[in-house]
Amino acid sequence: MTTHDLSTPQLPPPVLLSVTDLKVHFARKRGGMFGKADVVHAVDGVSFEVRRGTTLAVVGESGSGKTTTALAVMRLAPITEGSVRLGATDLSLVQGETLREARRRFQIIFQDPYSSLNPRQRVGEAVRAPLDLMAIGTPAQRAARVDELFAAVGLRPEQQNLFPHQFSGGQRQRINIARALATNPELVVCDEPVSALDVAIRAQILNLLKRLQKDLGLTYLFISHDMAVVEHICDEIAVMYLGQIVERAPRRAFFSKPLHPYSVALMSAVPTVSGGRARAAQRIKLSGDPPSPINPPAGCRFAGRCPAAVADCARPQTLREVQPGHWVACHRVSVVNGQVSAPLMLPPTEAPLAAAA
User: Does residue 191 surpass a pLDDT of 60?
Assistant: First the structure.
């Protein structure tokens, strides 16, 4: 008798983090007592979702607003407008003790493993600090939890009595990871966690983050400017430029065919194993500097530097889905008979090198 597979298709995991029309504006006062305050549009209408157990990478050049977005999600930067929902909790609305209790569910790994640890505090105390502050467990349970965390990140229990200066950069970042996991969070924001480390150590920390995600079911919001690092760890990628997301797509779709001209320019700068001078000739060199976030353009914010800009780029651009899960904010990207065309394309043979998976 022939048997048939009656199993239903696997549903995607539920959304854990939902950011809707997030804006973070800072007032910057001019000189003098009566000087008019300028408004810096650091983040200007960002929306995305991160599904439970997955990694969304937010990339962009310095000043794009990616770190400010992460800090706003963590409630470490003021939210001007919009909402940040972690499950059923709107983090943009909670305050005081409610916010303090909610912080058990989301933690952050900072970029610099040197300055993010107190040099006068033993590292075991640093890892235990979140448990003490939030009064989680008994003293004996906290000590056992610290032992468990040190083992999870590849450190020995006896190293808890050492000070930060007695560790290497990679070991310090392992301590920071252990501290971030102390409260057993659901969401971990990773703010360029490997950019300050040697290249040889980066792979170890990335592999540790991936293993912990698999073992603990963690969800990552990963901030980076390194495309090779992002390709190694992310499930989905969002590209930011001057406070806005210009492209969002699954990892495979993005790295095989970026569509927004800014994304293409970013990818063209990633080194490849081969290509030499021919590869250098394909690099898209952007002229000029990004516009000021104090007075951003009304239309496409990349138009002034875009090699493919036309007159219509002066009108506002909105994210639209051109392929399943692939969103882009560029009116020059078109879909004809199911085929997507873009104004700038990287040759398939010149695709950037994928990091080792």
Answer: yes
Alpha carbons 134 and 142: distance in angstroms, whole number = 11
Q: Tell whether 227 is covered by a domain.
A: yes
Integer Cα distance of 9 and 268 in angstroms: 37
**Within a domain: 171:** yes
Whether 316 is covered by a domain: the verdict is no
Q: What is the CATH number of the domain that holds 206?
A: 3.40.50.300
* CA end-to-end span of the chain: 41
pTM of the model: 0.89
Q: In this structure, what is the dihedral angle of CA atoms 289, 35, 39, 75, given to the nearest 10 degrees?
A: 120
d(CA 158, CA 155): 9
Each residue's pLDDT tens digit, 287-308: 778 888 998 998 999 998 888 8
Token pair of 55 as six digits: 């990694």
Which of these ranges, 28-32, 149-153, 184-188, has the smallest mean pLDDT? 28-32
Contact 355, 228 (CB under 8 A): yes
- Give the chain's domain count: 1
- Residue 340 falls inside a structural domain: no
The answer to whether the CB of 24 falls within 8 A of the CB of 42 is yes
The pLDDT tens digits for 213-255 are 999 999 999 999 889 899 999 999 999 999 999 999 999 999 9
Tell the residue number behind the tokens 């999870």, with chain if given: 152
Residue-range definition of the domain harbouring residue 108: 15-28+38-241
